[in-house]
Amino acid sequence: MLFQKRKEELKAKAGKLAAGGFVALDRRFPAAFSGRQLLRKAFPDHWSFLLGEIALYSFVVLLLTGVYLTLFFDPSMSEGVYHGAYAPLRGLRMTQAYSSTIDITFDVRGGLLIRQVHHWAALLFVAAIGVHMLRIFFTGAFRRPREVNWIVGVTLFLLGLLEGFCGYSLPDDLLSGTGLRTADTIIGSIPLVGTYLSFFTFRGSFPGHALIPRLYVVHVLLVPGALVALISVHLFLVVYLKHTQWNLPGRTNRNVVGQPMFPQFTAKSSGFFFMVAGVLGALGALAQINPIWLYGPYRADQVVTDAQPDWYVGFLEGALRLMPPLETNVVGHTIMWNVLLPAVVLPGVLFLLLFLYPFFEEWISDERSEHHLCDRPRDRPTRTGFGVAAVVCYGVLLMAGGNDVIAYSFRISVNGLTWLFRVAVIVAPVLAFVITKRICLALQARDRQLLVEGRETGNIHQEIYGKFIESNRPLSARERYRILLRDIPKPLHKAGGVSRVRRFKAMASQWYYRDRVEMPTTAEQRDQINARTAPPALETKD
Fold this sequence. Notes:
Largest sheet: 2 strands, antiparallel
Number of helices: 19
Structural class: mainly alpha
Shape: globular
Oligomer: single chain
Distance between the termini: 71 Å
Strand content: 5-15%
Order of helices and strands: HHEHEEHHHHHHEHHHEEHHHHEEHHH
Radius of gyration: 29 Å
Strand order of the largest sheet: 1-4
Helix content: 55-70%
């Protein structure tokens, strides 16, 4: 009885302290209002929205496994003789970076598992960001007011590539050293300043003795800090700007229909985190990746055979292999076009286009309103064609990065295969664009046919005069809503007496938006569509 009374008193005091602390916090910060708004935020439920969560949760796994590996990794490039547990390497001279990685693999309990989970998580992190960006691109979720969040996402993808390359290079094995040699060549190809940048990066001639410690600082401190900051900004903007949603009944451009953050979304998201972590743990335990003990320590006079980078930089390797050997001597300076164009200009142009595309589409359509409904890719055939063409181009370059392995495996000429990829990298994206655009228009035509004729039932009946007729059933309200509720800009009209820029803009808009299949709608349906796609009432026009 006495203990029960004492327990109730302690519970009452704890509750009083918690209430007092919350009141003190709420007086200085809108905790009650912000907490209530956040916990009741609606999250639309669709599988494609999980792609961003996969990237987030794989990043969490990366941080946790990276902290564990940091406790045992030594980034020093001082050399010594190996006398560890792995017998085939005993007696070889190697750097402390490579030796400590071997020790993590064979001497630290769970070291190999954590290393492989870390590597798989890195691959999944970059892949999830890439696929998430494709979802954002194809559905138009980058449009106003989310242009800044798109820029943040592209920057995250770029930093993910940098982080992956730094981590890939830290073990100082023969494979990663080959990649660093390629990086040194790329840096040196930059006109005028390339040799100075290379000297500064390696603190002397390649390979130097300072790069691994510098990459270690970048890998464990600078880039992770930037990633955490940008991910926080990204999540804040998602909450502040509202979530995009698919055009289903009840969903308009001025509301968000979904499950509240607590408890539904929190419970589902927590379970999904453990699923992602479990899959990465299974991969780390069952699927071998980056067996550095087979490559041996890096030596500048050796190159490992079948050297392939991780997939996210494989397109650069492919571009380097496809570029003809072109060089130009200008006033005693050699410009290596065969390295500069594929490894410096190509990625620079690629990321510049990614950063600017939302503003290009806004400029070409003359739209200044907010958009919170996702586009169906078929309704934007030109944009979808561009996206598929870019994916095909990337796929060709990725395969070209392994042209030697492909040629050896299929017993074909590596020179012939290289020329095949050179043609494909130009022709295949164009064909992909044309075919994708035609498929999108065909799908729009199919939607129109469904609206007019209905969906086939498979039931056939015979009229009194002997004619056989297949009966169709009209589409459901949900299907009609999804097809009819689309927000496609009208092409800009060409007008005389305007500036050349305006005429060019009108011509580009006509080419970009002219191909479409109009859906049969009544005047009442058009009014309803305009009402549901209207921007939020509080939006201010430019």
